[in-house]
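Much of what follows relies on a compact textual record of a protein's fold. A record is reproduced here so that you can trace the correspondence yourselves:
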Amino acid sequence: MNIFGILTNFTIPGPTTCGKPEQPPNSTLISTDFAVGNRIQYSCDEGHLLVGPTQRTCLPTGFYSEFPPVCRCKSSAGL
């Protein structure tokens, strides 16, 4: 408190979770805990190629780092 009795030293709590993230078609999301600081992982189904990050982290802002990956069919990815 300051000299006028007003509370001045306080913090506003931030998010504690990011919620369940987007899951691209033909992918598997490997995580059950979406709390701040935790990582989630993605893998693609058989016959698909992961394009983008394999991991994302839940940030203190309540958003995930990185954009979600995409799982492309290997035959359409030029392989």
Q: What stands out?
A: The longest strand covers residues 39-44. The chain is about 0% helix and 25% strand.
